[in-house]
Write a structure and sequence with these properties.
Distance between the termini: 55 Å
CATH architecture of the domain at 63-203 and 339-357: 2-Layer Sandwich
CATH class of the domain at 63-203 and 339-357: Alpha Beta
Strand content: 5-15%
CATH superfamily of the domain at 63-203 and 339-357: EIF_2_alpha
Radius of gyration: 51 Å
Structural class: alpha+beta
Number of strands: 4
Largest sheet: 4 strands, antiparallel
Strand order of the largest sheet: 2-3-1-4
CATH topology of the domain at 63-203 and 339-357: Alpha-Beta Plaits
Number of helices: 10
Helix content: over 70%
């Protein structure tokens, strides 16, 4: 009996011990879950929302946004659609000009020009400790690469993929500054496109221009050579002079035949007549003139070969010059087709009121986001 009593008592003790142990484990688990929930509540929900309310209600600096709408066209890439076609959405625009515009505005060169004009550190240092240059969003860095990324973050370039119309947004802490930046970037882009077009002109036209100039100089040299030949030989145009001498020789030959007949008749019938002697004298003169004309023609024919080579060379150069001028005209047309043209659809706006930050909307977004995250983690 004693043994049974002791055994029963021991079982009761063990049962109470187990119950207490289970209670302690449950209590510890509950405290652990409460602590975890408290951490989630404070660090995931409460603290972020307090910070967002304090920041957006009292600290966030107003940001003024200047907007402009542009279109870069290029005839060779079907970018020359009219505005009505573009807005209707039926354009076959390749958007090459739009992406060229975007890459230019966000490039290091554009940033360098902007920084020389405005000094980005001075311009964006008046904002709050989060958004200003060298602030929290920049991880307190003011190096050149960080400034470039800060510049890119405040310059928005949005492209409509269907029409190629580009919207540029400029963020600044002052209305006048946002407008001035927008106007500067548009003018800087225009200068860049003009320089790009000049480069295209040099690429397509310069070689053709040089060839035209070379041929024009060559023709002038040919004309000088012809003039020197004329001065040296004493003939203006050997072909016309040769024809004239040949014709003159033929005329003298005809006269010679006529006078020879008269002389033979007079010699046979009236040999002692003074007229016969006169005819003989004229016949001799005609013979001498005819020989001179034919000899001069032969001599001129030999000399004319060098003149003809000069004329042939000049004619060839003139034909080549005409071909070069045609090639130059085609190069100009091709260069024109590769030009980029900037069309300003909407000039930079001059905002009177800030567009950012959207305080209530931002607070609500953080509230909903942290609430969802808290429910997930809980």
């Amino acid at each position: 009996n004693i043994f049974l009593k002791n055994y029963s008592f021991e079982n009761q003790v063990n049962s109470v011990y187990k119950k207490n142990l289970i209670f302690i484990e449950k209590f510890y688990e509950n405290q652990k879950n409460k602590l975890k929930n408290n951490k989630i509540f404070y660090f995931i929900f409460l603290i972020p929302n307090i910070i967002s309310i304090l920041y957006y209600c009292f600290l966030a600096s107003p940001i003024y946004q200047s907007n402009s709408i542009l279109l870069v066209t290029n005839p060779s890439r079907k970018d020359s659609d009219n505005i009505t076609t573009l807005l209707s959405g039926s354009s076959e625009n390749t958007n090459s000009g739009a992406y060229l515009l975007k890459e230019r505005i966000l490039s290091w060169d554009s940033f360098s020009n902007f920084n020389k004009k405005f000094d980005i550190i001075k311009l964006y240092s008046s904002g709050d400790f989060v958004s200003r240059v060298g602030g929290l969003t920049s991880l307190w860095s003011k190096g050149d690469v960080s400034l470039w990324h800060y510049y890119q973050k405040n310059i928005g370039v949005n492209i409509d993929g269907q029409t190629g119309i580009t919207k540029i947004t400029i963020n600044a802490y002052n209305s006048n500054i946002s407008y001035e930046i927008s106007d500067f970037l548009i003018n800087d882009t225009i200068k860049y496109l003009n320089n790009l077009n000049k480069t295209q002109d040099n690429y397509f036209i310069s070689s053709s221009k040089e060839e035209v100039q070379r041929l024009e100089d060559k023709i002038k040299s040919d004309e000088r050579n012809i003039q020197n030949w004329r001065i040296k030989s004493g003939y203006f145009d050997p072909s016309s002079d040769y024809n004239a001498l040949t014709k003159h020789g033929l005329n003298l030959d005809e006269k010679q035949v006529s006078f020879q007949g008269q002389y033979n008749f007079s010699k046979e019938n009236i040999p002692n007549n003074p007229a016969t002697k006169e005819i003989k004298k004229q016949l001799d003169n005609i013979n001498d003139s005819s020989k001179k004309a034919h000899n001069s023609a032969k001599s001129l024919f030999l000399k004319s070969s060098s003149y003809e080579s000069l004329i042939i060379q000049k004619d060839l150069d003139e034909k080549l010059l005409n071909s070069a001028k045609i090639a130059l005209q085609e190069a100009r047309i091709k260069s024109f087709q590769n030009h980029y043209y900037l069309k300003i659809i909407s000039n930079p706006s001059h905002p009177e009121s800030p567009s950012r930050p959207k305080r209530i909307e931002s607070i609500l977004i953080i509230l909903v986001s942290t609430l969802i995250l808290k429910l997930i983690l809980s």
